[in-house]
Description:
Number of strands: 27
Helix content: 25-40%
Radius of gyration: 25 Å
Structural class: alpha+beta
CATH superfamily of the largest domain: Bira Bifunctional Protein, Domain 2
CATH topology of the largest domain: BirA Bifunctional Protein, domain 2
Number of domains: 3
CATH architecture of the largest domain: 2-Layer Sandwich
Distance between the termini: 32 Å
Shape: globular
Amino acid sequence: MTNNITPQSEDYSRWYLDIIREAELAENSEARGSMVIRPYGYALWEAIQSGLDRRFKDTGHVNAYFPLFIPKSLFQKEAEHVKGFDPELAVVTIGGGSTLEEPLVVRPTSEAIIGHHYAKWIQSYRDLPLLINQWANVVRWEMRNRPFLRTTEFLWQEGHTAHATEDEAREETLRMLDVYVDFAENDAAIPVIKGIKSDRETFPGAVNTYTIEGMMGNKWALQMGTSHYLGTKFAQMNQIKFLDQNNVSQLCHTTSWGISTRMVGAVIMAHGDNQGLRLPPVLAPIQVVIVPIWRKEAERVSVLEVVDRVHTNLRDKGIRVKVDRRDDQTPGFKYNDWEMRGVPMRIEIGPRDVQQQSVVFARRDRPGKEGKSFGIPLSEVAHETQTLLHSIQENLRLQALQTRADNTHRVTSYTAFQEVLQEKEGFLHVHWAGTTQDEERIQEETKATLRCLPLDSTTEEGQCILTGKRTSQMAIFARAY
RNA sequence: CGGGGCGUGGCGCAGUUCGGUAGCGCGCCAGCUUUGGGAGCUGGAUGUCGGAGGUUCGAAUCCUCUCGCCCCGACCA
């Protein structure tokens, strides 16, 4: 009973890095801050992509692709946007061996270039709304990197929409936020708090930034997706205008929203345990692994015959199933190996099972023998598998929800705030009427940041924990990645 | 970018104090025996000791510079 994964309680950061290495999700590459996403990690990202992409299409969006390079002058049109991103830009100054007349910014996000093209495409109110998403890589030069959570280059989707009115654009912003909530909770099985960011945390150039915040296994918060109402700021900078029904020229109201490969990190940290990954069935590249067991050659033949039948049966039902046919590993090794890789459930088939025309189930979300069910009749395997996968998906979500509930604390004074943060950590739910300076003070004194002003919270009045002002505004503070 | 730690075979590490020409566990390859919770035995392969320069008869070990990684801060999807 040994594995190469540091227990979470001993060192959470090492646990995270160990899992990424052992489960072969990713590894660092030669350029500082850049990583290779290995096939298993990429398959997880593909599952995330397909869950999101389907939802984008269902809400009327189409995909397109905009270029990686943005002329510096174009990027610099929106003042706050520039100020926010300037420190983390990568800029190309040489091309084809000679110094470029105009440097090219490697996109850290694409509002600028997309807005430029939208201005050409939009002439009339009949061209609106324009609802486009792109799947792309972006580059942000960060001080400190962690695989999936913060890398110099990362993959994401960025939706960019243009609308005739503020109301429509605001509605779109919140619609996509809800799409993210739906994805996070139903596909990734991670409950999230949706909220609005404080001025301090608002996207550079946005009017409002909305976020989904999840709680990780170490009780820290992770921003898992953002949706911005950009007002007419970017429309102004690129002159994205249309003629309305009254032949009056109007600026568009735009939005943007994104989820990145950081979501992979969220899945690792929200569900993983000391055994390794625990993947929600909806996202798991392999949902079911079948482990055949035999001693003698005759058994091998009869076992594999049943294994193949079950394999085909499940595959035909659309279940992502793999048979572990390695004959140089013991079943015990395989159990641990696939558990470490987070496969939601395992089917064991050996001579005894063949004789009884049944199989053994083992579910990843319950450890060891507790997670096993014996004597599942062959005739019911497909049905029972589907049922169990649903159950695991739901159970992971409930476990994460429980963890968050257990580690969310309502506090009413700054003294209590500091104590709870020190002793228990987690999310702190407070009345808040502070300023940016107040937020900075809290961060300096406690390391916690204002994650968001939750949208779904009570409106009862109370005293701001820092300023003492009466307010009905709530806020969530936590340590965060 | 500041403070601390660390770079030795694919992974995890010992060796560095006190220089003498590299070792352990896992993994890998071959064979045999095994296989219902991380198999055993036998044999074998794999290292520019992160990189560059220097000191020395001789450097993983000492000196200088550099690159990278990890932890803690500041910045952030």
